[in-house]
Amino acid sequence: MTTANTVTEQLTRAGQAIEQGSFAVIDAEVGAHAYTSEQWPIVRRMIHANADFDFNGLTRFHPDAVAAGIAAILKGGTPLVADVEMICVGLSVPRLAHFGIATHQFISNADVIARAQAEDTTRAVQAMRKAHRLGLLNGAIVGIGNAPTALIELVRLIHEEGARPALVVGMPVGFVSAAESKALMAEVSEVPWIVIDGRKGGSTLVVAAVHALLALAEGRQRQGMQPD
User: Where does the record place the Cobalamin biosynthesis precorrin-8X methylmutase CobH/CbiC domain (predicted)?
Assistant: First the structure.
């Protein structure tokens, strides 16, 4: 029985060759790093997404982050809550479907917009609150790549309202509160997280990190299918 991933790889041999060739270039050029054997594929895929070697060093992991992410994926049916639609669109539907993962984002919902206007907050804040009201945050993978206010609100929900995501991939990009929001997340001990220090980030990096976690989960799944 083969141990190669089939669901979370490129679907053609040509595509696989290009992707694996890119990873080989990154491995050859990256230099030294302090990431574990399971953290590195995540960072490498993030570098691949942006051709930016700065993510070697800027990317930080809660000690339980990778294990928690893989466990949440393998559990099956785990919700993935995003701050913006771009993350949901960027994720591979077949890869998510293999693990029964459904995506959720509420940034453009009429009720979210109305609450944001009435309470003078951002839509991202209200979207996180809606996800919590709907019971979607507990046990979820939460991906935040655009809105620092979403990550700040999520930290508040963890501290003040007991929200307990399985994993937070907190990578909002920007110049206002982006670095600060990730620093806040990195102080959280109750919930595992993956963050990027500083201003850099973005939805493409969240997508890359989640795809890497899906690949790690499939590898673990296939290992479990091997005969004794």
Answer: 18-215
Label residue 189 by pLDDT band (50, 70, 90).
very high
Could you write out the three-class secondary structure of the chain?
CCCCCCCCCCCCHHHHHHHHHHHHHHHHHCCCCCCCCCCHHHHHHHHHHHCCCCHHHHEEECCCHHHHHHHHHHHCCCCEEECCHHHHHHCCHHHHHHCCCCEECCCCCHHHHHHHHHHCCCHHHHHHHHHHHCCCCCCCEEEECCCHHHHHHHHHHHHHHCCCCCEEEECCCCCCCHHHHHHHHHCCCCCCEEEECCCCCCHHHHHHHHHHHHHHHHHHHHHHHCCC
Beta strand 59-61 with 193-196 is antiparallel
Give me 70's structure tokens.
């893989």
Question: What structural domains does the chain harbor?
Answer: 13-225 (3.40.50.10230)
* Residue 48 bears catalytic tag: yes
This prediction has a pTM of: 0.92
Active-site position among 48, 98, 132, 211: 48
